[in-house]
């Protein structure tokens, strides 16, 4: 549960808090390559014995009894430049020819729809211990790396490489998955190796099944009765789906690469499509039941379905919801926001504003669905009278933006959860990565800090947009501009981006403290996983919203008129980041429990300082200020109004002039 953990670090004054993005570093970067020095240490492990069905003539199926040598690789890093491959060579047979006749090759339809959900290699529901292989080139290319969409590091041959790869001398490689329960296997999805240095992918494979890892049978072509050969990949990244001619019930499944790219190795990443089945003999422990009891709409929603769902929530809870748009995508799709509060549509004095943003990358669908589920849940529980939700929506104004990049999502949605790949739909329709499209405010602030200019010359908050960013020809996506204007328009206090680098910008350009949340290893989980993902994140989503109550809050007022002072600066001693008041003079400063010295200041007023204590009990501590105008400010206002200067003010101004002279 990420909320409870992140809440402990939420209110630290450091700039730039955020979590890393798996795999982002491989895009377009190419450091010096490494070469490997092979170690002489060897070990041997007996491979599982098998009694296969009769293979085609002249061809062994790669499951006979033998020993497999496991190679231990030691690395010696040599700084040596190596050119990145730019054009793969054509697909050819890279092992003894397969005995296939026209009837032995699987005749597949052009369009295939998966019948069963994924077994869970990509989402890590399948553990490393469930994956085995005939051999591996190194630990970093072991079977545990044979997961769909897994990404490699920059160093070729490190511990986090981008596929399972069999040893070059392994003439009969295989990759095996233990489902641990009787399972109905219906299809396989494969990719090649993710690497910035090499091209490796399998071009065809066979499939076998077993209940004990000893006796195996193959997937056969329905018309000919011979072992089916499945066409695989023609590039490293595009997922290729093959449905089995007939689903098979077994515990183990093996992929046996038959051909692969010339000059490369038998490397693959995969996901297995499988449905659980009941065990009539009750020999295996039952798999834990996953799901949720909440009456919510657990499915993926494209733009039209998302808009319809938000409208339904608004109609069901009209007194606490409002749907509004903050702008449009490059293709003209609206960026819809669901507002939830007891007074929707208005900023209430003293009530903090919080937001969740999802879908910055269009192919990362889980955040989008979690926010759609959250708005349904809050509506349902409010109508049910749940005290926790009632208090949350009474004391807080919540804004939910489920899709910041609707154009990208539509692209990913059309491909489907298992076939969208790692990058398709990530960018907006212009090809802009919204994650890196916000202005860099960190660098100028750090440079100013190094020069000793903060905070006297350069402020430590509300940094302006750089000049280059505001030019007409600046490469700024319409989605990015819409979100920035949204930030400037509403005095947000706390935010979480369900993936993206926006948090630093938000912290430095506005009052809002924001974190980035990495939700899942699977960017686009299957629909049947959504109930469990909701249960995994529901409590965290609620708890994080409640953190806005931690710290101090108050109103800065004019001592004479009692009117709120907008843009007053709230500075906490010892924390080099200030916040400002909203247009009504109210402010919120997130602080962990402790004693603080707080100063309120505003142009034309004398600053005021007071001590504020934040207890461990829940709830913000009131810390109000009344500021007195400076004589100069009072004089300005009187002269502007055409009034006479009061005698006491005139005498005070004369004394000040005398002191100055």
What brief labels describe this structure?
661 residues; alpha+beta; Jelly Rolls; Aminopeptidase; six-stranded mixed β-sheet; elongated; Probable carboxypeptidase X1 isoform X2; glycoprotein; Galactose-bd-like_sf; Peptidase_M14_domain; protease
Please provide a written account of the structure.
- The protein has helices spanning 2-7, 303-316, 365-384, 387-395, 406-415, 442-450, 478-489, 502-509, 530-546, 631-641, 647-660, and strands at residues 36-46, 67-75, 91-92, 131-133, 164-165, 175-191, 202-210, 216-218, 230-231, 240-261, 267-276, 321-328, 334-340, 353-358, 397-401, 492-498, 513-516, 551-558, 569-572, 579-580, 586-590, 594-601, 608-614, 621-622, 625-627.
- The protein is an alpha+beta fold and 661 residues long.
- 20% of the residues lie in helices and 25% in strands.
- The relative contact order is 0.11.
- Helix 2 packs parallel to helix 3 (365-384) and helix 3 (365-384) crosses helix 9.
- Among the domains are: 128-276, Galactose-binding domain-like (Jelly Rolls, Sandwich), CATH 2.60.120.260; 304-437 and 475-548, Zn peptidases (Aminopeptidase, 3-Layer(aba) Sandwich); 552-629, Immunoglobulin-like (Sandwich).
- Residues 3-113 have low confidence and may be disordered.
- Residues 88-103 have a biased composition (Low complexity).
- Belongs to the peptidase M14 family.
- One of its GO terms (molecular function) is zinc ion binding.
């Amino acid at each position: 549960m990420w909320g409870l953990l992140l809440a402990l670090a939420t209110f630290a004054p450091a700039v730039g808090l955020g979590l890393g993005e798996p795999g982002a570093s491989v895009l377009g970067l190419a450091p010096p390559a490494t070469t490997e020095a092979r170690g002489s240490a060897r070990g041997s492990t007996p491979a599982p014995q098998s009694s296969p069905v009769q293979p085609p003539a002249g061809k062994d199926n790669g499951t006979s009894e033998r020993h497999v040598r496991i190679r231990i690789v030691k690395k010696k890093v040599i700084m040596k430049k190596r050119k990145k491959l730019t054009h793969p060579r054509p697909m050819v047979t890279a092992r003894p020819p397969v005995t296939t006749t026209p009837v032995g090759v699987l005749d597949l339809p052009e369009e295939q729809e998966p019948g069963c959900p994924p077994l869970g290699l990509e989402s890590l529901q399948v553990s490393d211990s469930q994956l085995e292989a005939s051999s591996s080139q190194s630990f970093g290319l072991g079977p545990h790396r044979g997961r769909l969409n897994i990404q490699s590091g920059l160093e070729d041959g490190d511990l986090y490489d981008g596929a399972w790869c069999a040893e070059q001398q392994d003439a009969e490689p295989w990759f095996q998955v233990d489902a641990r329960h009787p399972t109905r296997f219906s299809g396989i999805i494969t990719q090649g190796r993710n690497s910035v240095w090499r091209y490796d992918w399998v071009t065809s494979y066979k499939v076998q099944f077993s209940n004990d890892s000893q006796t195996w049978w193959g997937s056969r072509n329905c018309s000919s009765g011979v072992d089916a050969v499945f066409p695989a990949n023609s590039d490293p990244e595009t997922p290729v789906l093959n449905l089995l001619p007939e689903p098979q019930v077994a515990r183990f499944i093996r992929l046996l690469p038959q051909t692969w790219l010339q000059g490369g190795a038998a490397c693959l990443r995969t996901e297995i499509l499988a449905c659980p089945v009941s065990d009539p003999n009750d020999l295996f422990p039952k798999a834990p039941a996953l799901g949720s009891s909440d009456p919510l709409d657990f499915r993926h929603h494209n733009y039209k379905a998302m808009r319809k769902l938000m409208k339904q929530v608004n109609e069901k809870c009209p007194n606490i919801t409002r749907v509004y748009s903050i702008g449009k995508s490059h293709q003209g799709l609206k960026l819809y926001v669901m507002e939830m509060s007891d007074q929707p549509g208005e900023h209430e004095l003293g009530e903090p504003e919080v937001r969740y943003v999802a879908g910055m990358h269009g192919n990362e669908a889980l955040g989008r669905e979690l926010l759609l589920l959250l708005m349904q849940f809050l509506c349902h529980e409010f109508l049910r009278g749940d005290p926790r939700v009632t208090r949350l929506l009474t004391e807080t104004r919540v804004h939910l933006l489920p899709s910041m990049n609707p154009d990208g999502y539509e692209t990913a949605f059309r491909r489907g959860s298992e076939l969208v790949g790692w990058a398709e739909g990530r960018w907006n329709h212009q090809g802009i990565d919204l994650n890196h499209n916000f202005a860099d405010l960190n660098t100028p602030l750090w440079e100013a800090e190094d020069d000793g200019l903060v905070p006297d010359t350069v402020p430590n908050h509300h940094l302006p947009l750089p000049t280059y960013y505001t030019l007409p020809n600046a490469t700024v996506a319409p989605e990015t501009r819409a979100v920035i204007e949204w930030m400037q328009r509403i005095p947000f206090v706390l935010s979480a981006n369900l993936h993206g680098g926006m948090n630093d910008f938000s912290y430095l350009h506005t009052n809002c403290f924001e974190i980035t949340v990495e939700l899942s290893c699977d960017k686009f989980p299957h629909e049947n996983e959504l109930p469990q993902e909701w249960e995994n994140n529901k409590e965290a989503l609620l708890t994080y919203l409640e953190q806005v109550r931690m710290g101090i809050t108050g109103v800065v007022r004019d001592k004479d008129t009692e009117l709120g002072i907008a843009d007053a600066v709230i500075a906490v001693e010892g924390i080099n980041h200030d916040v400002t008041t909203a247009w009504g003079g109210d402010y919120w400063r997130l602080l962990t429990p402790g004693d603080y010295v707080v100063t309120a200041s505003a142009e034309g007023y004398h600053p005021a300082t007071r001590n504020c204590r934040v207890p461990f009990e829940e709830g913000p501590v009131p810390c109000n200020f009344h500021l007195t105008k400076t004589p100069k400010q009072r004089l300005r206002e009187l002269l502007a109004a055409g009034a006479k200067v009061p005698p006491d003010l005139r005498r005070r101004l004369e004394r000040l002039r005398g002191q100055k002279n």
